[in-house]
Amino acid sequence: MKKQIIILALLVLPFYGQSQAVREIDSAAVYILDRMADIIGELEAVSFSIETAADKLDDNQKIETHYSTSHVSMEGPDKMVYQRIGTNGKYGFWFNGTYASFYSFKENNYVVLESPGNIIEMIDNLHTRFDFEFPAADFFYPSFTDDILEEFNTLEFLGKTVVEGEECFYLRATNENMQFQLWISSSNQNLPKRLVLIQKGNQNLRFESVFKSWDLNPKLPSTMFEFLPPPKSKLIDIMEKS
Fold this sequence. Notes:
Elements: E1 24-25, H1 27-41, E2 45-57, E3 63-75, E4 79-86, E5 89-95, E6 99-104, E7 109-114, H2 119-130, H3 144-151, E8 154-163, E9 166-174, E10 178-185, E11 192-199, E12 206-216, E13 234-235
Parallel strand pairs: 1-8, 7-13
Antiparallel strand pairs: 2-3, 2-12, 3-4, 4-5, 5-6, 6-7, 8-9, 9-10, 10-11, 11-12
């Protein structure tokens, strides 16, 4: 299944149609991506943090960089919670396998949406219906490597480099509209460390995420996935996309 979101989706930079240029795919890069996907796919639970910087154009077509920090916890197959604080305020999200709740700390209001199914089904459902964004969602799709190969003409393994004191595999993929760079820890865990997306031909808008504080298979209390409305908070409705 091909997704319509990318990382937090991700999120600010859409994928475009793949060009007809000659494809150059490095088998070592494919192996590294598959290894990372296998490790993530075997997790029963996970927690991590993401620091994000995203370029956007203001009303005068000038670049503004928006910063945010998110902390995400998931327990398979159908539990997820995260909080994000950034340029546009502080938000929280809870999913318990049946209902998804989104809360604005600034506005003190919340939305509750029925969305039964697993985490991936919920992400697809809420993104399609309401344009919800989910931090690092793409890494948790079983089809992650296939999606990269479908969207990009080239995929290279550029050797090892150090990101924030950690040795990482450095991968780069390109098509006529975008450049995708990914640093994956070279330790036994092979988890994402840094991601950069650069949109070509549109002032080179840039999206960057740094992943920190990975905690694999933590023991997470079930109550953390249940949303309890704060005092005086207001339940609101939102409209689905047309």
